[in-house]
Every structure is written in structure tokens, then in C-alpha cells.
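Long-time lurker. I teach an intro course on protein structure, and each term I like to show students one example going from raw sequence to a predicted 3D structure in C-alpha cell notation. This year I'd like something fresh instead of my usual example. Would anyone be willing to generate the C-alpha cells for the chain below so I can use it in lecture? Attribution to the forum is fine with me.
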Amino acid sequence: MPRQLENTLYSLSPEHQQNVTEDDYEVIIVENRSSNTLSKASIEKLPKNFRYILREECGVSPVPALNQGFAESRGETIGIMLDGARMLTPRVIEHTLSCNRMFKNPIVAVPAYHIGEHEHENYNTGREKEEQELLKAISWKKDGYELLKHACSSIANPRGYFHPLMECNALFCSRESFKGISAGNGVFNLLGGGSYNLHLYRSLGLNTDQALVILPGEGSFHQFHGGVTTSKNQENRATLLTQFNEQLNSHWGGQYKALAREPILFGNIPEQAHPFMQTACDNGMKRFHRFERFDEHPWPDDAGTN
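-- Reply from a regular --
Happy to contribute to a lecture. Here you go:
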């Protein structure tokens, strides 16, 4: 998926990320060798703070590549994007650096979206072409927040950030925190890493000594690329998802639960993000009223009752 990866890398570049320079952060790209990797010309054009590693990998999970990227990294704070088809809004790096100055070892989560009006439930070449045309039309490279006008919430987090998030596809934490949960767990060896993102988010978030911060004005946008659960071959999708759930639940006493901690909201809220904040508030009020009615704590992982 070189086209999608090039968009992802541009969104991480100092040209796109605001109020930071290439001296403030590094980007490490670890790509498993295939017949369609990033071109030599694209690699040569990468910013100075980018490093590209082409990996020989016989497995089907990206988690070993994640571990290699972590081993190569030099920062005390790391960002994890397991999917190379994700695009970020322009102040993610700036706000993450600010959070590191304000809080001790925070976990910083970027809300997830899909480009287009609907979740990518089925792959087809027509949808991918439509997405390409849309990206050209909205000039997202001039204003990355325009992506929010042409996106829908991820199916994993449809009600917004006042409900527990199931996962995070752009997540930042301290190096020690990542080490503390055994880094990229090699047990997640299924296609695409299986449900590793869900495992990672909950594992990190259960440490209540660390602030859980969500950037409501920013976003991580999934691009169409025929991934593991949105590929052309949908016959095995149900089987794959069953395998993913079984592997995930085996780590959590037979029943995985989404992390239920009250988040700290941080950062600017551009006008393009207002509808998503309104939806989150409306859904959050319904949720809190329901918990109040039953005299239950809305954030049980903060209360130590989950």
C-alpha cells in the first residue's frame, strides 16, 4: 500500500505537523518486504528525521516489526501506529509534547476515524478510487483538519470519548510504560496483529498512576487499502474475527473489556471537530444518566471495581 503509506508519512512530516521541527521528534518506518513496498524515490525524499527499515519477515503479524522499531527508537516517549494507512491531523505531535511537559508519563490517545461517510465494511476497487478522488478534492495537505469534514467515527469507538474506547490506532506513551507491558507482545501472531491494538490500549491504560489524555480536536484517519478485515476476500472474515477474539480474551481471563477510565481532554478544538464533540457529549450524557440511575461508577477502572 505505498500510496496510502506516502499519505501517512506526509501527515507525520514537519511540513504537515504544526509548531514542531524535525529536531523535536523522529519517525521510524519498518516495512515488511513484499512485492509492493515503498519506492526508492519516495524513501530518498523522506525528511531528515525519518528512518526507513526494510524488514525480512516470514510471519503475518506486524508486531515483530513494531518491536524492531521500538528497539531502534531513541526518544523517551514513543508513538505507535501499527497500521501504515493512517493519516494524522496537524497538531498531534505538538500536543503530545505538551502533555509530556504537563503530566508524568501520560498515555496520549488520538481518536480514530474512517475517511468517507461510512465504515469500511467491504473492500472494492470503486470505494478505493472514490477515496483517492475525495482526498484530491479536499486539499487535505493544505489543511489537515478538513479530513474531519469527510469522515465518520471508527466502528470500534462509535459513541465518542465519553464512552470507553475499544482501541487506539495512534497511541503515545513512555518507553518504560511500553517495556512494562512486555512491549509488542509476540503472542499476537495472527494476520494484522489480530486484536493487539485493543490489548495494548487496555494494558497501558490500567496503570492509573499515569494520566490518560485524549486529543479530541485531532484524529487518526484510516485509508482504504484492502486490509485484513476489509480485504477483497471476505469469506474468511468471520473466522478471522473469531480467532482474534479468542486470542485477545485468553489474555484477560476469558473476557476482554474496554478500558473504562475518565480521560483528560487536551488541545484545541477546530471547528471541523465540533460535530464529533457534540456527538460525544450527547452520548456521554445518556451514559452518565444511566450509571447514575443504577448508582454505578461510570469509570470502573478508575474506581478499581472492574
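Some talking points for your students: The mean pLDDT is 91. Residues 291 and 305 are 14 Å apart (CA to CA).
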